[in-house]
């Protein structure tokens, strides 16, 4: 909520999970106890360019145990003697005030946890997992296709064996037919009648004469 002519934070909703709050370049002069009530897990607070004049105005921030960084650039309070020492004494949980720690060591450019970079990393990791899952699925599809090809080849081989058996049977029948063709006509006819279960008429006549 930067530069929106904000006079107070009294209407701030309850945001238990909020970590970083930007309120710079507004006209807030007090009422910071609301932050302790409604944003209890705040770690970064930027009040630069507001109307904060006294150290005591910051006292409600003592109730923010996780407050790690506080910015008060361009606030009148920064003009007070021993300003930095006073704020660090009042808020011992602070690590950085106006971008520097108590030993004047500059803060890192960004805090991944506060900026939400950690969430981006999790999102990217989620995408990588999805890619891995897709790769696994592709491999399974390829395996299934190979199995199907193997089954088809096996069926073709079985069909080949069946065809060979059929050809052998046909060959045997042709040989029998050829053998029949070599017999004398009478013998061939007699053999055919025997195959059909009938008697030769000549044999019947002989029986009658007897």
Question: What would you note in describing this structure?
Answer:
With 210 residues, this protein is mostly helical. It has six helices and four strands. It has helices spanning 33-38, 83-90, 112-115, 117-182, 185-196, 201-209, and strands at 20-22, 44-46, 69-71, 96-97. A four-stranded parallel β-sheet has the order 1-2-3-4, covered by helices on one side. The chain is elongated, with a radius of gyration of 50 Å. The relative contact order is 0.07. The model has no long low-confidence stretch (mean pLDDT 76).
> What percentage of residues falls in helices of 4 or more residues?
40-55%
DSSP, total strands: 4
Mean pLDDT: 76
How far apart are the termini? 133 Å
- Percent range for β-strand residues: 5-15%
Q: Which stretches are poorly predicted, pLDDT < 50 over at least 5 residues?
A: none
Note the total helix count: 6
Q: How would the global form be characterised? A: elongated
The largest sheet, given as strand count, sense and whether it forms a barrel, is: 4 strands, parallel
Side by side, the strands of the main sheet go: 1-2-3-4
Structural class: mainly alpha
| Rg over alpha carbons | 50 Å
Order of helices and strands: EHEEHEHHHH
Descriptors:
6 helices, 210 residues, 4 strands
What's this entry about, in short?
The protein is mainly alpha-helical. It is 50% helix and 5% strand.
Task: Reconstruct the topology from this structure.
Layout (H helix, E strand, L loop, with lengths): L19 E3 L10 H6 L5 E3 L22 E3 L11 H8 L5 E2 L14 H4 L1 H66 L2 H12 L4 H9 L1
Parallel strand pairs: 1-2, 2-3, 3-4
